[in-house]
């Protein structure tokens, strides 16, 4: 990060030349900071927060870093740059580590979450304790993105970094509130900073004044222990006798009613006129740096005057040898007084603006120009730097500037009105954006500026494109083109590209392709996002994926563009092609990006895509999917974007259609269709009709299904979407097959097969538009092979081969077999549970479980040995045949007579389960743990482990617990669950979530009462929550369990940890996560 970004004065604690009061009781309270990750000092201005902490850290034996925040530090780029620089003084190398990420941030990629994580990781070394003070953290309060990432950083802090923050107001940030509730943070309030009578006596003694007890009491009653006026009065009366104090005290209370009067009478009035004038003239400056003071005053004596003021004891905050700042209240008072002469006030600000502009500090210069009411010059400066700030995402800064300009000035600078609209659009304030753009259009029209007018019209259209309202967007874009009269090819090409995107949004990708080709002929550069959307809405999903994947690889950290964000488009392609795991991850990444950029509409799109992904297997979570859809709908309603509700509504329609709520599904589909048609989006309307057709098809109303699916087909064909049309043909063929309608099957199946042979992905996994059980395609393919004419029959045969099945397969059950071995034994044929009375023999269940627990085929002799160990081979062979028949009858009762079940593969002397057609909870459990082990990101590992442990409902095959063959599997899988629960507890503890860590550790202990690592994690978590009695009980449980079960004592490290935590239960945050 360039040094130009850093104001080094922010990184130094204040230095006061006046003697400071050492308050032992308060310092004892502050010492608790060394035993906590977070200490919060909460008090109003003038309460002595900064001065007290400055004295405390400079006297501490621990190394410390300091960072004083101002309003400009709410900008995340400024904040993280300075925080990294501050920490570099106690953790050398941090700036170098973060430099690449900060460079990316300056380029507009906004990797704030990555920066927070990297900064937390880098702060772990060296493993020595240190203090970090963030003074005036409340300046972040109005910037949710910075607050969110800051809280994330706090939650990841290593135990050796002790953070102290000061704030003027109570912070309601969730992480800080949780830390306080869990007693993981130490709070020092305003009342603890107030001086007692004894403190007042000591303060005045520092200034050479010996107060009588009655004078201390009188001062305390008048000030209520408020340190600022007491310090000012002590400095003013330095060396005074008791009699002089008596003379000052009678009018003290009246003066303190108005702090300004108090400051003027006790601080300013006694000063020489030259120093008074210096104070008022330099009140416009945030930092009193001699060169700036000289420039403002047109003098060259500021260095001496600053030193003189410091010697007098004016309560200046010293930053370095020659640089100071005023206490905030003093500064506010001086500014109020200086503004009494408005002419000079503006003159001084103009001088300051010129000085900072000359020294390359454009933003500081613009601030002074605004104060000088030199709005023309300020607007000129903004027009130069605003595009950079916009690209860096510094929207709050731009909004403050633009709001300070009078309407007449903004009208004179319509480029700034466009910037104002962009700020509103990028933060999802669409009505404000349209108002600014329309105002800019009027201003450009008055100037007869065709290019500017066209730009304003284009910006208005972008609001409707961002919110997917293609009809009004098209009108505005065509109007913008007419304004240009073909006189500006570059601008015209840009408009043609937007017309192409908008036509694609209307479900007319072919027209979009023509607009795009016209733009390219005018010299427009390639637009990969637009090409991808044209491919998506044309049904060319592989081409869409290729473009988006290549683009994401080239620019992985770019600003989000609402529904056009590549990761969210890829998530949608994923759910259409059955890549559920990828879809969930991409949508989660898009959600995180949207929240970092404070883009509610993009956030709503991410929730829609998460809803799609979580309604699909494997590990579908219907409640979770529904929550995501409802969240998306709520966000769109808050933003008043009704069209934005269409996608979550059609998602809900698919969800309810497949999960037994047809009336709710039809209602959601109808609402999606109405909203889509109102917005002019034929493609989304087609999806709504497809959802209606699927609902009717799944719930045995074939006539209504045919009507809705024909409507969907017509709309998809009108939109030239080959994939959507293929899905409509698929469902009509599926309905015809199940209603024994050969003519309709022969009409529609060939169209589906023609698409499937070129893009067969949907045949191998559950997809949003297709069948939810991939095995349900096989009977359709068999029927098509046997009853259709070439080339459809040959395509069906080829697709059967692609599934790995014999091309001449005669029968298939048409469903996946779902086997649950953890806890109570359950098997489902597709969605239908196998009833208990279908299992004629218990050995049939045991055989299925035994085959599922072995990844490779088993020899018959092995099965004899496991299931019939004491039976002669001939009898065992007979038992196996009978058991296999009973198993086949249970799991595939509709198979042809005397045929074996499709789900059990027999070859020679071996028998195996048909894994491609079976889903088993044990396999999913092991796969999730393996993926967690390979996952470098802790949060993703946590989610994978949570999903794995949710599958573990109890020991595998509990009814076989006494079978010799089953016990090794029971123990092996239980141990995996114990280790997974322990690992999850460690991850929770590292994240700072002590309650979750305890719950996960207890889950491990429920499976193995002697698992010492879980006891240690739980004890550490209890220490974080200051639960000393729980620590004692945990250790006692551990000791008793080990003695009872194994006849041993706890391991030395367990005992050592217990003794340390019980002795210093409040010291929980000093240690890391225990490693056994």
Automatic annotation (TrEMBL):
Looking up InterPro entries in the UniProt record yields: AfsR-DnrI-RedD_regulator (IPR051677), BTAD (IPR005158), P-loop_NTPase (IPR027417), TPR-like_helical_dom_sf (IPR011990), WH-like_DNA-bd_sf (IPR036388), WHD_MalT (IPR059106)
Task: Report the coiled-coil segments.
Answer: none
The record, for Pfam families, names: BTAD (PF03704), WHD_MalT (PF25873)
Q: Which residues form the Bacterial transcriptional activator domain?
A: 920-1062
Task: Name the chain's protein.
Answer: Bacterial transcriptional activator domain-containing protein
- Could you tell me which species this protein originates from? Ardenticatena maritima
């Amino acid at each position: 990060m360039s040094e130009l970004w850093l104001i080094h004065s922010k990184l130094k604690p204040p230095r006061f030349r006046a003697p400071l009061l050492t308050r032992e009781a308060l310092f004892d309270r502050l010492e608790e900071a060394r035993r906590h990750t977070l200490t919060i000092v909460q008090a109003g201005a003038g309460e002595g927060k900064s001065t007290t902490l400055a004295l405390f850290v400079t006297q501490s034996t621990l190394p410390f870093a300091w960072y004083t925040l101002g309003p400009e530090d709410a900008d995340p780029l400024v904040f993280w740059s300075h925080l990294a620089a501050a920490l570099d003084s106690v953790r050398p190398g941090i700036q170098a580590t973060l430099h690449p990420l900060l460079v990316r941030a300056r380029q507009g990629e906004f990797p704030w979450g990555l920066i927070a994580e990297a900064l937390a990781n880098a702060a772990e070394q060296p493993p020595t304790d240190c203090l970090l003070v963030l003074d005036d953290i409340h300046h972040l309060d109005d910037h949710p993105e910075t607050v969110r990432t800051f809280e994330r950083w706090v939650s990841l802090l290593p135990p050796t970094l002790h953070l102290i923050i000061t704030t003027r107001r109570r912070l309601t940030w969730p992480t800080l509130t949780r830390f306080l509730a869990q007693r993981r943070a130490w709070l020092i309030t305003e009342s603890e900073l107030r001086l007692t009578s004894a403190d007042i006596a000591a303060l005045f003694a520092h200034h050479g004044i010996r107060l009588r007890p009655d004078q201390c009491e009188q001062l305390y009653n008048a000030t209520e222990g408020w340190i600022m006026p007491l310090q000012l009065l002590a400095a003013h009366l330095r060396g005074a006798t008791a009699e002089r104090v008596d003379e000052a005290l009678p009018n003290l209370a009246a003066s303190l009613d108005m702090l300004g009067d108090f400051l003027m009478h006790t601080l300013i009035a006694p000063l020489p006129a030259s120093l008074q004038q210096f104070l008022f003239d330099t009140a416009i400056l945030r930092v009193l740096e001699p060169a700036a003071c000289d420039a403002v005053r047109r003098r060259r004596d500021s260095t001496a005057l600053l030193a003189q003021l410091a010697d007098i004891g004016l309560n200046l905050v010293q930053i370095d040898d020659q640089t100071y700042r005023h206490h905030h209240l003093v500064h506010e008072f001086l500014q109020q007084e200086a503004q009494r002469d408005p002419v000079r006030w503006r003159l001084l600000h103009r001088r300051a603006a010129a000085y900072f502009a000359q020294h390359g500090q454009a933003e500081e210069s613009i601030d002074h120009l605004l104060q000088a009411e030199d709005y023309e010059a300020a607007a000129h400066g903004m027009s130069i730097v605003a595009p950079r700030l916009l690209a860096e995402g510094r929207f709050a800064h731009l909004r403050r500037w633009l709001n300070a300009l009078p309407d007449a000035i903004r009208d004179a600078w319509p480029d700034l009105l466009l910037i104002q609209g962009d700020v509103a659009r990028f933060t999802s304030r669409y009505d404000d954006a349209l108002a600014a753009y329309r105002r800019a259009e009027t201003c450009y029209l008055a100037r007869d500026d065709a290019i500017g007018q066209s730009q304003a019209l284009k910006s208005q259209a972008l609001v409707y494109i961002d919110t997917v309202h293609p009809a009004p967007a098209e009108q505005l874009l065509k109007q913008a083109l007419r304004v240009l009269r073909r006189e500006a090819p570059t601008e015209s090409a840009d408009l043609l590209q937007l017309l192409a995107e908008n036509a694609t949004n209307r479900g007319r990708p072919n027209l979009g392709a023509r607009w795009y080709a016209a733009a390219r002929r005018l010299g427009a550069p390639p637009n990969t996002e637009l090409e991808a959307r044209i491919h998506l809405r044309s049904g060319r999903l592989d081409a869409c994926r290729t473009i988006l994947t290549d683009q994401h690889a080239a620019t992985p950290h770019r600003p989000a563009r609402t529904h056009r964000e590549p990761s969210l488009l890829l998530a949608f392609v994923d759910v259409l092609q059955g890549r559920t795991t990828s879809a969930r991850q991409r949508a989660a990444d898009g959600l995180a990006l949207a929240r970092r950029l404070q883009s509610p509409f993009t956030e709503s799109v991410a929730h829609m895509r998460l809803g799609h992904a979580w309604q699909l297997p494997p590990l579908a979570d219907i409640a979770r999917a529904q929550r995501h859809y409802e969240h998306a709908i709520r966000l769109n309603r808050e933003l008043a974007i009704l069209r934005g509700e269409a996608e979550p509504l059609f998602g809900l329609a698919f969800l309810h259609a497949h999960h037994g709520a047809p009336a709710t599904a039809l209602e959601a589909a109808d609402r999606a269709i109405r909203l889509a048609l109102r917005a002019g989006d034929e493609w989304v309307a087609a999806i709504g009709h497809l959802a209606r057709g699927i609902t009717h098809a799944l719930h045995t109303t074939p006539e209504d299904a045919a009507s809705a699916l024909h409507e969907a087909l017509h709309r998809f064909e009108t939109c030239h979407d080959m994939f959507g049309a293929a899905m409509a043909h698929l469902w009509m063929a599926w309905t015809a097959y199940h209603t024994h309608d050969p003519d309709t099957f022969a009409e529609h199946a060939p169209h589906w097969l023609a698409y499937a042979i070129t893009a067969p992905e949907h045949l191998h996994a559950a997809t949003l538009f297709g069948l939810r059980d991939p095995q349900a395609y096989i009977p359709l393919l068999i029927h098509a092979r046997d009853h259709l004419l070439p080339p459809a029959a040959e395509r069906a045969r080829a697709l059967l081969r692609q599934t790995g099945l014999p091309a001449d397969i005669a029968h298939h059950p048409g469903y996946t077999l779902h086997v649950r071995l953890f806890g109570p034994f359950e098997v489902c044929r597709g969605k239908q549970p196998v009833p208990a009375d279908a299992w004629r023999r218990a050995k049939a269940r045991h055989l299925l479980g035994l085959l599922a627990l072995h990844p490779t085929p088993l020899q018959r002799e092995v099965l004899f040995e496991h299931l019939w160990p004491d039976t002669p081979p001939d009898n065992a062979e007979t038992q196996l045949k009978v058991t296999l028949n009973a198993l086949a009858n249970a799991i595939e009762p509709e198979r042809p007579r005397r045929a074996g079940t499709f789900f059990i593969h027999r070859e020679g002397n071996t028998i195996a389960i048909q894994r491609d057609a079976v889903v088993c909870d044990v396999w999913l459990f092991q796969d999730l743990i393996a993926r967690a082990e390979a996952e470098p990101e802790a949060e993703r590992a946590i989610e994978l482990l949570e999903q794995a442990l949710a599958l573990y409902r109890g020991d595998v095959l509990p009814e076989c617990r006494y079978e010799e063959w089953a016990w090794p599997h029971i123990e092996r899988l239980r141990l995996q669950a114990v280790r997974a629960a322990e690992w999850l507890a460690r991850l929770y503890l590292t994240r700072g979530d002590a309650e979750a860590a305890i719950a996960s550790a207890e889950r491990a202990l429920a499976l193995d009462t002697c698992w010492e690592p879980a006891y240690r994690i739980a004890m550490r978590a209890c220490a974080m929550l200051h639960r000393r009695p729980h620590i004692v009980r945990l250790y006692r449980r551990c000791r008793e369990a080990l003695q009872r079960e194994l006849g041993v004592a706890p391991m030395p490290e367990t005992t050592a940890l217990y003794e340390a935590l019980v002795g210093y239960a409040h010291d929980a945050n000093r240690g890391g996560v225990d490693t056994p």
